Each structure stands twice: as structure tokens, then as C-alpha cells.
Amino acid sequence: MEVMSVSVSSPVFRASHTKAFDYCVPIRKKTVIDRKFVFNCMNYSSLEVAADKPELLTNLVKDVDWPSPTDEIPFWKRKFHTRDVNPEIPVNIEKDSDPLHVIHVTAEMAPIAKVGGLGDVVTGLARACLLRGHKVDIMLPFYECIQKDDIQELSLLSTYSSYFDGNWIQTNAYSGLVSDIPVILIEPMNQFFKGEDVYGGSYNELEAYLFFSRACLEWMQVTGTQPDIIHVHEWQTGALPLLYWDMYCHLSLHKPRIVLTIHNMEHYGECRQEQLNKCGLDGSLYATIDKAIDDRTIGHNPERLSLLKGAIVYSNSVVTVSPTYLQETLCSGWLASALITNRDKYHGILNGIDTVMWNPASVAFLPANYHAQNTDGKKVCKQYLQRGLGLAFEGRVPLVVCISRLVAQKGLHLIKHAISHIGKHGGQMIVLGKAPDGRVQSEFEALANLHNKGSTIRILLMYSEELSHMLYAGADMVLIPSIYEPCGLAQMIGMRYGSVPIVRKTGGLADTVFDMDDQSQPEMANGFVFEGTDEASLSGALDRAFFYYKEKPIEWANIVQKVMQIDNSWNKTASKYIDVYNSIRVRW
Ligand code: ADP
């Protein structure tokens, strides 16, 4: 495995998707229990005093192995004993009286196969429903990049054949547990899902997901599994509702009803009729306006299908991930007419976060744990990052993080502007991101080369779940300057970790972040909001946040405590999904 040595003189931190950690170096010197004990026994009032005196903080926190940029293994690549981040499952959740069986069919699941928020949502919603007494399984492709040791009780469940392009492909179904959630992993004996990453392998992605959608139904059919709900996500599993209603429910599956969640309308699963044929459907039958045709291609040669549109038409219920995004999607974009036609079954349910996975009080990846009543561990996390990345750690300097896929949607020009603005205005910034587009990746590499030598900015072009926890914990502010954002999780995770959000007012960001200076609803105030997509609008919000941080330290401490106590958990919103499930379930 590649070992990344980080030094100030080799400033561009680059890596592919982090995989197993080959080295076992504990982040703190003692075991988790010892460490918690040591932290709990520490005199926090003296730590409070020490907050602005880093040398003293260092002396007090004797059990922290402070990292350095010259470490042979960077701190975020050290081995953790588990990726099952948190064994502390809440036990006092009231059970629902009429349990359902839900099977999610998805391309992502956190943390084993996560690229963005889709993975988080599937895991968080599944856990919330399990805790309420429902039976939940998650079906996903057995990507070659999934680390087998991240799956507990992994075992071969069945071997069967599933149709694709004139052949029956031998397929293995494995069962296991990921963070206590039952999974069924589908592994075809062909080239699909092979490669180093979840997406971007050297196979045809659309065809692989067409295969996967059918293989999940085929597995249910051969094993006689009839859940109440099959919950599909995004275009990748958009063929499943078509396959279910036009094929499998004429075979032996009758009971399931289908829910589709649209996490992002940008990707709509463009599909040629011949490609749809490959999963056994007659593609020409779907090329009509009331089925799956991509309206924009009508009259073109050839016309195209959209798997997402087909799924909107064929699912019993359609959900998108925030009320504001629901309104936005009804007003703009070519899918608006399909959504308006299906308005009765279209719901906007705000995503939650999985507070078991995202818990600063117990997550294993942090050098110090903390909670809303005592945030001293957060100061340790901040200095840990600063030292480990070679940032200055003297004085009271606001540290902003931006953890994001580096794609146009996320406001790339604004992220770049923030880097230079923060550097010039007495702050620090860490960007953690990966760009699927090589041109964007190169631009950010150039920026990393320019800035990573200094003491204020770090641009880390990689994916690392562990590092993301450390960044949310060590930051004072988390920046999400998206051009559009269906829901956004980074602002909610940031708040849970006591990092104050700075966001553009769009989609789910508008539903979850309310400006500190908005006098009309001071009780809701929890961050800094700007509206324009121009650089000046962002600068204004950053300047206001820095002013609060530097000039109003008591108000700042209060807002940190306040955002940590906001309940953005799935426990709050899962009931809305369960209402949707119950509204369409049938009893046999
Ligand atoms: P999207 O789904 O559009 O990517 P969300 O805000 O809904 O955006 O979810 C993003 C999720 O992916 C968050 O959990 C965020 O922490 C995580 N994430 C994004 N980029 C990275 C990265 N480079 N390394 C680790 N986690 C990342």
C-alpha cells in the first residue's frame, strides 16, 4: 500500500480513497477506556484557561501523542482498532407498534462504500428504523474496494443466476453486518463493480446498475423474500421499479411497494433503449412521455430514456431530501413536469444524521472526545490538527474547514475565493476534497502547491472518513458555499461537532441554517448565511463569522454549545419516512 509521507517540503497531500490502515499506531497513548478516564479526570477549568495558551494545553494533555507534519505516517493514516466508529447505540427509543420489513437497494452505504451523502443517509435511516423495531436490510453491490474486515459475520448466503444481455450471470449473495446493520452484498461473476473505487471502474456503470437492480429482485424471488417496502435510491436503482411492476410482480413477488428517494436531481440515469433491453425489459415500451422518455430528447435521433424519470413514474412514493429542494425541483429542471404530474406522491423529508456514527463524545477517531456540556476536548482536536498539518497554533485564530466533493454544485469558485480570503484575513482553512474531474483536480493541486507551504491553508486532495471526523471536531467553522444543495449533511455534522456553519442559502441549507444576525428569528440563529453566488457575498459572511469569533468570545462559546444541542438526528425525521412506508404498504 502507498505510504504517504507528509512534510512541509512536500506539501501536496494526495491519496486515493483511504483503505485499510497498515500501521497500528494509536492516536492517543492509552486505550480508549484509559484515555477517556484520563480526560474525565483532568481539570477542565485549567484547560479552559489554557485554551489560548497552547504550551500549557500541551502540558496538561499529557496523554496526547501530538502529531507532526514530519511523522512517517500522517496522523489520519494511523490504524484505528475499528471502523465501526461507535459501539454506543441508544437504547431508549420507543418501538413502533406495527413493524415493517424494508429493503434498501442502493449504490452506497456508509462507511464501507461511501462517496457522499447518499451513503450516510442509507445507513442513518436504516439504523433509525431498526431502533424503532422495524426489520431493515441494505442490498448493495459487493464492490471490489469494500474492505472485507469492515463487515462482521460475513458469509455466503446463496448463489444464483441473474439475467443480463442474453446470459444468466452466476451471482453470489453475501450477508453480514455493517455497524450492526444487516447487509446483503451482490457479487456477479463478471467484471461489474471491480476497481479501486466505488465509482469509475473500467466497466459500463449504467449497465452494471441495470444488472444490479434486476439481481436484487431476482434474489428476492429465488429466496422468497417479500419485504413490505423496497426503498430505491437515485438513478442507479431507478430500473428496479420498472422491473418490479412489469416483470417480477407477474412472477412471484406481490407484496412489496416501492419508495424512491431522489438525493440529487443532477444525475438522471441517461439510458438508451437498447441498454434497457439488456436487463430484460423492452426499452421501446418505455419511450413515451408518461413513462421514461427524457423529454428533452423527444424528436431527436435517437431519443433517450431516463432511469430517474422512470422510477418517479413507477414508484409508489417519491421522496426528496428537504422541503426547500422539493419546491425547487417543482419549479425548475426538465423533470419538473414529471414531478408535478406525480405531485400527490411526492414528499420532501429533511435528511437527518446518524448520531451513532457522528458522535464527538465517543467516536474513536478523535484525539479527545467532548460533548455540548464540556467542549474542552474540541480545543485538543483543533490543536491536534494544527500541529499535525504544520499550521500555526498560537493565539486565537478561527479555523474553517470545507469537506466536500469538488464538483461545480459545491461552489468551486467560492471555495477558491474562501482560500485566499481566509488566508488574508487572519484565519486558517483546511479543504478536504476529491474531484472526479481531472481538470478540477489539477486546479486544486496547483492551489495546494501554492498554499500548503505556508502556515494558514491546507488543501488535502483525498477521501478520508477518519480525517473528516477530525476536521469537523477541530474546526471553528464549516463552510458549505453550494450553488445548489438538495439537503447537505456537512452543516449538520459540523453543528453536532460544535463547528458553526457558514452556508449559501439554498435547498436543505436554507432549511437547517439560520443567520446569527437575522433579528426576525433569533431563537433559530445557528450560523452565517449568504445568498449571492458572488465572491463578495461569501466574503461578507466570512467577515461576520470572524468578527463574532474574535470580538465576541462569550457569544461564540454559547453558539458552539447551542449548535451542538440542535437535534438533526434521524430519530427526529425517520417517523416521516415510516409514515410514507405505512401509507403504501399492503397486507397479504
Ligand atoms: P453530497 O452528497 O452532495 O456529496 P452531502 O453534504 O449530502 O453532500 O454529504 C457529503 C458527505 O460526504 C459528508 O458526510 C461529508 O463529510 C463526506 N465527504 C465529502 N467529501 C469527503 C472527503 N473528501 N473525505 C471524507 N468525507 C467526505
From TrEMBL:
Domain Starch synthase catalytic: 101-329
Gene Ontology MF terms in the entry: alpha-1,4-glucan glucosyltransferase (ADP-glucose donor) activity; alpha-1,4-glucan glucosyltransferase (UDP-glucose donor) activity
Catalytic reactions on record: [(1->4)-alpha-D-glucosyl](n) + ADP-alpha-D-glucose = [(1->4)-alpha-D-glucosyl](n+1) + ADP + H(+)
EC number: 2.4.1.-
Subcellular location: Plastid, Chloroplast; Plastid, Amyloplast
Cellular-component GO terms for this entry: amyloplast; chloroplast
Record GO biological process: starch biosynthetic process
Alphabetical keyword list: Amyloplast, Chloroplast, Glycosyltransferase, Plastid, Starch biosynthesis, Transferase, Transit peptide
Domain Glycosyl transferase family: 396-545
Pathway: Glycan biosynthesis; starch biosynthesis
Coarse class of the protein's main subcellular location: plastid
NCBIfam families listed in its UniProt record: glgA
HAMAP family reported in the protein's UniProt record: Glycogen_synth
Family named by the database record: Belongs to the glycosyltransferase 1 family. Bacterial/plant glycogen synthase subfamily.
Name assigned to this protein: Starch synthase, chloroplastic/amyloplastic
Source species of the chain: Helianthus annuus (Common sunflower)
